[in-house]
Amino acid sequence: MESSNGEGMLSPYRVLDLTHEWCLLSGKILADLGADVIQIEPPGGHPARRMGPFYKDEIDPERSLFWWSYTANKRSITLDITTPDGQALLKRLAASADFLIESGAPGELAALGLSYDDLAAINPELIMVSVTPFGQNGPYADYKAPNLVGVALTGFMYVTGESDLAPVRVGFPHFYLHGAGAGAGGAMMAHMQRVLTGQGQHVDVSCQESMTRAMANAPQSYALEGAIINRQGAYRQTGGSTFMRLTWPCKDGHVNFQFSGGAGSGRGVNSMVQWMAERGMRDEYLESVDFTELGYGTITPEMLERMVPPIENFILSLTKQELFEGAVERRILLFPVATPKDIVDNPQLEARQYFQEAAHPEVDDSVTFLGPFVGSNVAPLQMRRLPPKLGEHNIEIYRDELGLQHGELLQLREAGVI
Description:
By secondary structure, the chain is an alpha/beta fold. Helix content is 36%, strand content 15%. It has 16 helices and 12 strands. Strand 1, helix 1 (24-32) and strand 2 (36-41) form a beta-alpha-beta unit. Helix 1 (24-32) crosses helix 6. InterPro entries: CoA-transferase_III_domain, CoA-Trfase_fam_III, CoA-Trfase_III_dom3_sf, CoA-Trfase_III_dom_1_sf. It holds the Pfam family CoA_transf_3.
């Protein structure tokens, strides 16, 4: 599957992707933006190919849905960069590349003679992006960090979960995805500098720093007020002793309703109280309060204890769709908590053609892929390539682009280099 029209935003640029399974998102973002991203796999295949779930539960390295999700729009070559011949080939590729993204331990590439300085000596315009748990330096730089360790050390686990239970992690591993996303953003910032100066650089991404930024006000609250934001389950702590309620069970799932004071949020709460009265679920105490006159996030535990039960009973009496439609009509800050099925069936995503069907000859079927993460009327993001098979583009790149002869390729294959 090749796009027959149009150039992407990054179509002139080439990316060498050496990332492990949890950092594939960096290259995926650049590939979706139109860059020629070459996924460099070990000859035995990238570990992500062995990660489930698998298409129709058939365990096969060419049917990993994880691999398909993160490598569509990329090309694939096999290369063992731990060998001298592999290192020489990577240097030849780097000579004409614009970006190289990697997620090895600090110093891992340098030990192979493939550090940023080594490659910049060949191609001064090259931008190398290194995504690691804690960055290239500091006392934690060499620590191993599976997702659980990383999420704990960002502080994110401390604020996630119920107040009377142990901290919990978010269900899907997020630690490296935050770093990978920051890696793509860092690559673009470095690229802007390169456009101005013609000089490449080494972008050092710490997943810990990237995910800590997602904690919103928790670090700032402590730094500015000495207030420790604790995990509160369905509630959100807004200060040392003030809270708001966010997540609520309803008839067929959950919704988020921001139960808080303030000029904006308060109007929505007032509308919710009025809606309750219209449906015969009036509460005099709630009606006695004008929530627009309360400060944002200033509801006390005593107020919550009295106010939450009647609102909770009302929300439990309606479905997600009924609550959503009523909230839109009444301008209430409330929205459904979507399940995977809700997302696939979402009319907004459908209208924007977010999910895209593509014929996949390997499985003799049409497969649904995620669509573009941003729209553009000049260079629209599109599905240009199916996820690559192992080493699918070896001949295309090694022979047609680097000029290796058939005999050389056979020797490299027999030696386990490609």
